């Protein structure tokens, strides 16, 4: 692709960004910030209807439907120490309890081996699925997170991505999990600390909590903006959740507003887009374990694998203090889009960070490259400040209008840039180099106990093939090269971001880069010449085979497209 055509794509991205930033984003967010819009609620249905009306008014084709999803609505919780009651909220997908008792144990001072039969008290951590799983495995009686922040914080502790199956429903916890906040949290934490919780001599704590976990019908809305050659060039997907805790102005009414404004800004430029744009608003992002996103991915798996070139996850823009965009999440394959948007919209340098999950995880099994998921962070921090998210304070008045306008403009820039490019909107060479780095990191981690030379060679060969494929596509865009680039990108995403099969999402837990090789951790942890080491080595050898074969297949796809273009046989390595 010559420089003129690349500049045309960037120029269009800047036009869409400026148009988006000039809209009344806070006003639109107010239309969607309906309090009480839990998944499947009448309030959520009203917001989805408004969004659909707005997208139709912008000239998009809109389809509305419903899916069945397991969702969890938390109720009140009471924590008792002696005669004192501390009110809190139960975490979604935690277990109910009428009177679960045990001595208090400080999570940050006592190891999990000492948690059995105790009420674990966490003062520095949210009740993440990983923490809950550790407490459950240790045999804890309950988990209480005492967080002295802005107010009651609603959270989900489901480790299952999407609604469960007969094989994953058992992964949901039956452990009561309670969140205390503010002065209540401080008072409770002080009480158990004084009584010796940090030394394992804590007072008896009683937990009573309730949750309403059941299957519900929840909405999903999809809207399309066709473009020239869309069938051949595929589409760019924007997605965000419609449900919320409390009013959920930032999380995620502002995200819906940003998507709607981008939709309006893109419509006048449809003739200049080389691939279609699709916008999906799904339920279950908060109280359903991303059930709507996973249901959409399940129902459209072949289309996503075959035609989706990029997914931009839109969640929680406009947060006060989140002015630093330097670590905006993007895969290696999509980092060039993030870098251009951050530099041109915010005039900041971009170094990036690895996407951590969310709704995007539902699309990774289909191999869809992704970016975003969050917008900005306070300066000097490593992650977005939770701020008012999931609390009663997440109202329209708490949004930062300038930050929201910037975030929406950034979304518009990335969407328009990706949709206008003559080539596939991925940097395959960057993705392959990231794979080389991941293989090297696992080899170092293995401490000489496993041989990864074959994976190293094949990752290097893939990088060379990807560099050739990208150069050829840029010089002379062709449908065959675009299809090959998409196929290679999808293999890189699955290898770099998933540990399971193509049709089953991974658990909603943190994953290391190139997670297929995570069995190396078990090997390193096992004593040499032991049964655990032998078991781990079996898993590692199979993982090495899987990685090596996938790298070879990806290289063959790239070389096959190049050979077809040249009219000759592909190279072999």
What is the straight-line distance between the termini?
Answer: 28 Å
> What is the structural class?
alpha/beta
Can you give the mean pLDDT? 89
Q: What is the H/E order? A: HHHEEEEHEEHEHEHEHHEHHEHHHHHH
Uncertain runs: none
Number of strands: 11
Shape: globular
The main pleated sheet reads as:
7 strands, mixed, barrel
Total helical elements: 17
What does this structure look like?
With 573 residues, the chain is of the alpha/beta class. It has a 7-stranded mixed barrel with strand order 1-2-6-5-4-3-7, surrounded by 4 helices. Helix 1 runs antiparallel to helix 12 and helix 13 runs antiparallel to helix 14. The chain is globular, with a radius of gyration of 24 Å. The model has no long low-confidence stretch (mean pLDDT 89).
Summarize the topology.
Layout: H1 3-21, H2 25-32, H3 42-57, E1 61-81, E2 84-90, E3 97-106, E4 119-122, H4 129-137, E5 142-147, E6 177-181, H5 182-194, E7 204-225, H6 230-233, E8 235-241, H7 249-266, E9 276-282, H8 291-299, H9 301-307, E10 308-313, H10 335-346, H11 361-364, E11 370-372, H12 401-420, H13 428-445, H14 453-475, H15 479-497, H16 519-525, H17 531-566
Parallel strand pairs: 3-4, 4-5, 5-6, 8-9, 8-10, 10-11
Antiparallel strand pairs: 1-2, 1-7, 2-6, 3-7, 7-9
Helix pairs in contact: 1-7, 1-10, 1-12, 2-7, 7-12, 10-12, 13-14, 13-15, 14-15, 14-17, 15-17, 16-17
């Amino acid at each position: 692709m010559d420089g003129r055509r690349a500049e045309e794509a960037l120029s269009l991205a800047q036009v869409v960004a400026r148009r988006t930033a000039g809209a009344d984003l806070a006003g639109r967010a107010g239309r969607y910030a309906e309090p009480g819009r839990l998944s499947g609620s009448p309030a959520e249905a009203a917001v989805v209807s408004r969004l659909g009306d707005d997208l139709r008014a912008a000239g998009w084709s809109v389809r509305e439907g419903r899916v069945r999803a397991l969702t969890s609505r938390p109720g009140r919780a009471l924590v008792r120490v002696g005669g004192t009651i501390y009110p809190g909220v139960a975490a979604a997908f935690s277990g109910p309890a009428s009177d679960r008792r045990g001595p208090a144990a400080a999570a940050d001072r006592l190891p999990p081996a000492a948690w059995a039969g105790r009420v674990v008290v966490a003062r520095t951590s949210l009740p993440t699925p990983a923490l809950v799983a550790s407490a459950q495995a240790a045999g804890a009686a309950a988990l209480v997170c005492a967080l002295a922040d802005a107010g009651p914080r609603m959270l989900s502790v489901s480790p299952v991505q999407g609604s469960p199956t007969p094989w994953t429903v058992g992964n949901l916890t039956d452990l009561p999990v309670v969140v205390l906040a503010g002065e209540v949290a401080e008072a409770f934490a002080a009480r158990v600390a004084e009584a010796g919780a940090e030394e394992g001599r804590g007072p008896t704590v009683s937990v009573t909590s309730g949750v309403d976990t059941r299957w519900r019908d929840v909405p999903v809305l999809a809207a399309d903006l066709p473009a020239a050659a869309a069938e051949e060039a595929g589409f760019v997907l924007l997605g965000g959740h419609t449900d919320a805790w409390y009013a959920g102005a930032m999380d995620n009414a502002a995200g819906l507003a940003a998507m709607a404004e981008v939709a309006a800004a893109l419509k006048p430029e449809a003739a200049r887009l080389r691939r279609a744009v699709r916008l999906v608003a799904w339920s279950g992002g908060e109280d359903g374990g991303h059930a709507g996103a996973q249901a959409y991915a399940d129902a459209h798996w072949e289309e996503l694998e075959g035609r989706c070139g990029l997914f931009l996850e839109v969640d929680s823009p406009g947060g006060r203090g989140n002015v630093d965009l330097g670590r905006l999440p993007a895969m290696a394959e999509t980092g060039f889009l993030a870098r251009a948007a951050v530099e041109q919209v915010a005039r900041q340098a971009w170094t990036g960070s690895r996407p951590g999950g969310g709704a995007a995880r539902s699309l990774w099994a289909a191999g869809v490259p992704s970016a975003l998921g969050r917008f900005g962070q306070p300066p000097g921090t490593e992650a977005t400040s939770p701020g008012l998210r999931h609390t009663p304070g997440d109202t329209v008045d708490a949004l930062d209008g300038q930050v929201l306008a910037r975030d929406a403009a950034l979304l518009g820039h990335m969407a328009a840039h990706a949709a206008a490019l003559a080539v596939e909107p991925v940097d395959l060479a960057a993705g392959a180099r990231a794979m080389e780095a991941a293989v090297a990191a696992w080899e170092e981690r293995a401490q000489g106990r496993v041989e990864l030379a074959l994976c190293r060679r094949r990752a290097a060969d893939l990088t060379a093939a990807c560099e050739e494929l990208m150069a050829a596509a840029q010089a002379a865009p062709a449908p065959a090269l675009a299809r090959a680039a998409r196929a290679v990108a999808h293999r890189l995403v699955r290898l770099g971001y998933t540990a399971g099969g193509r049709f089953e999402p991974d658990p909603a837990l943190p994953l290391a880069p190139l997670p297929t090789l995570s069995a190396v951790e078990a090997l390193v942890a096992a004593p040499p010449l032991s049964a655990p080491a032998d078991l781990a080595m079996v898993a590692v050898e199979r993982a090495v085979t899987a990685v090596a074969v996938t790298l070879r297949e990806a290289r063959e796809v790239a070389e096959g497209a190049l050979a077809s273009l040249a009219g000759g046989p592909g190279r072999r390595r």
